[in-house]
Amino acid sequence: MSDDLPLLPQLTVTSGPLRGASFRLRPGARTIGREEGVDIVVEDSRVSRRHAAVELTDGRATLSDVGSTNGTFLNERRIEGVAVELRDGDRIRLGGVELRFFDPSAALTDPVGSVRLVGPIPAQRAIGSSDERRSTIGVLAEPTQAMQTARRSGRLVLVVGGLVMLAGWVAWVLMVTR
Description:
This protein is α+β, with helices and mostly antiparallel strands. The chain has a domain at about 25-110: Sandwich (Tumour Suppressor Smad4), CATH 2.60.200.20. It contains one helix and 13 strands; from the N terminus they run βββββββββββββα. A six-stranded antiparallel beta sheet has the order 2-1-11-10-7-8, with no helix packed on it. The protein has a five-stranded mixed beta sheet with strand order 4-3-5-6-9, with no helix packed on it. The chain has a two-stranded antiparallel ribbon with strand order 12-13. The longest helix has about 35 residues, at about 145-175. Residues about 115-145 have low confidence and may be disordered.
């Protein structure tokens, strides 16, 4: 694979269970839904098994609803029947999940959130020049759990360190006052 790949657009989850997850879009169509086997799996009961599709062709990204029950919304407007061109900063809502479209070639906005591993997420990966094969990549796991564990460990070190310092100070005061 070449190291000089162009900057590719991405979808970043801004609300919902996968908040902070980012999905890099590669050329071609990507299906979004809650069914295993779609390109981008979104865990939300209000999202249809096959809900929407994003297609990247010739540097242009489009969004279409693929027969979802609850609809696909672009910037709070329901889209139906036709593919709508995505622009940098657009907000996409599927059920209770909102995603933001980031196009680095337009560079009007910054990507949302930080990347945190949460578990395997189905995705497409380009192999070689044009051969594509389904793979699973770990994009974003539950961020708060790891952060809370690290935070607790840090607090414990601070408390123990403070107690050791206090004990040392008490011992020093007792030695000086004798």
